TrEMBL record:
Enzyme class: oxidoreductase
Catalytic activity line of the entry: prephenate + NAD(+) = 3-(4-hydroxyphenyl)pyruvate + CO2 + NADH
Full protein name: Prephenate dehydrogenase
Pfam families named among the record's database cross-references: PDH_C, PDH_N
Keyword Translocase: no
Annotated InterPro entries: 6-PGluconate_DH-like_C_sf, ACT-like_dom_sf, ACT_dom, NAD(P)-bd_dom_sf, PDH_C, PDH_N, Preph/Arog_dehydrog, Prephen_DH
Domain Prephenate/arogenate dehydrogenase per the UniProt entry, residue ranges: 2-289
């Protein structure tokens, strides 16, 4: 019987096992996690068949998946090199950086064990086993590091994870770290810095932060990500992130100068070129995160008006990802933004709310 061992049953690990379970119900899945509640949840919800302490379960596995923070993945790869493993086992990881991970896997590979560095480019700022979903990665890119791409193990791993419905991309570790440094790691640093600087600016004026508008919230959404995971990512891609940060600071210096010199042309072209590039991404091409589906509902400024909408959805078992009140003031009607995980939920909600005479809009 094929056995899969997975260490780290958080958002990414539990999403992978959910997808593996879907396609390979007969496979035996052994899990490991430092959090007791996570292990109990995974057992209760049949995400795993067994839990073992630390890497013990790896010894009988045909596939070993490391899905903890990157620093832990690195330690585990070194430890696995000193453990008795099945000869044909395929070891992989999901860590957000790859050069240091690949380096840590060398002793294991020198022993003849196959290691394929992996990285699904989807996720969320949510963490933990309860946030995982079998369809988290649907249509997202999944990087595989091309150490020896002719090895049939690549296909075996893709087959194991077929139910994730990802788009596989072979890439070198160096290229990978440069790419994700720029499009994922640097933005996380910028978002966190902006939130911290804004918080400090408003230290004596608590109202300021509460006034945060849509733009601030959009650009800082990822500042809610897990500090343990992101500390580990920055430390394992430090040289690249420092270079990219310098280029970014340079860009800020340029626009600062243009503002100081009141250089209208330069200021305009700063926004114009950014708009041009950003517009090319298109709303449906963001790629990183699963799409969310929004509805905007006009709501009267009346006590209980929001509750009646949420109750209607709950009664019909439609789950919401997020709820947000926009533009509500005492004298005017407000707009309620409801966010759904799936288009079918949005459609159901739209139908129900329209039947109840609410004015419901989509803005996509
Ligand atoms: N969150 C995201 O959007 C993405 C994360 N990644 C990578 O995936 C990995 C996991 O991230 P998430 O699942 O998001 O984090 P998470 O915090 O949801 O899950 C990590 C899990 O690992 C467990 N853990 C931590 N140290 C452990 C140890 N020593 N032994 C056993 N279990 C341990 C934690 O208890 C937790 O359940 C990280 O390397 C991250 O860089 C990759 C793609 C996307
Ligand atoms: O869009 C982002 O950067 C995310 O927040 C999701 C994410 C986080 C970490 C990764 O390694 C890959 C994707």
């Amino acid at each position: 019987m094929t056995t899969v061992f997975i260490k780290g049953l958080g958002l990414i690990g539990s999403s992978l096992v959910r997808a593996i379970r879907k396609q390979h119900p007969a496979y035996k899945i052994i899990g490991c996690d430092t959090e007791k509640e996570t292990c109990s949840y995974a057992l209760e919800h049949k995400l795993v068949d067994h839990i073992t302490a630390d890497l013990i379960g790896a010894q009988t596995a045909d596939f070993i998946i490391l899905a903890t923070p990157v620093d832990e993945i690195i330690k585990d790869l070194r430890q696995l090199a000193n453990m008795p493993l099945k000869r044909d086992v395929i070891v992989t990881d999901v860590g957000s950086t790859k050069q240091k991970v690949l380096k840590a896997a060398l002793p294991l590979q020198n022993k003849g064990i196959t290691f394929i560095g992996g990285h699904p480019m989807a996720g969320s700022h949510k963490t933990g086993v309860t946030a995982g979903r079998a369809d988290l990665f649907e249509n997202a890119f999944y990087f595989m590091i091309k150490t020896n791409a002719a090895d049939p193990a690549y296909l075996q791993l893709q087959e194991l994870l077929q139910a994730t419905k990802v788009k596989w991309l072979l890439i070198s570790a160096e290229e990978h770290d440069q790419l994700v440094g720029q499009i994922s790691h640097l933005p996380h640093v910028i978002a966190a810095a902006l939130v911290n600087q804004t918080q400090n600016f408003f230290a004596d004026s608590p109202l300021g932060m509460r006034m945060a508008a849509g733009g601030f919230k959009s650009i800082t959404r990822i500042a809610s990500s897990d500090p343990t995971m992101w500390s580990s990512i920055l430390q394992s891609n430090s040289a690249i992130i420092v270079q990219q940060l310098e280029r970014y600071i340079n860009e800020l210096n340029k626009i600062e100068q243009a503002i100081v010199q009141n250089d209208h042309e330069q200021i305009f072209s700063f926004f114009e070129s950014a708009k041009h590039s950003r517009d090319k991404l298109g709303p449906k091409k963001l790629g990183q995160l699963p799409d969310f589906f929004d509805l905007f509902i006009n709501i009267p400024d009346r006590i209980g008006s929001i509750a009646s909408i949420t109750q209607l959805l709950a009664f019909n078992k439609i789950s919401l990802v997020n709820i947000h009140i926009l533009e509500i003031r005492e004298d005017i009607d407000g707009v309620l933004q409801l966010t759904f995980m799936r288009e079918e939920d949005r459609l159901k909600a739209e139908k129900l709310l329209t039947q109840k005479n609410y004015v419901v809009l989509r803005r996509d």
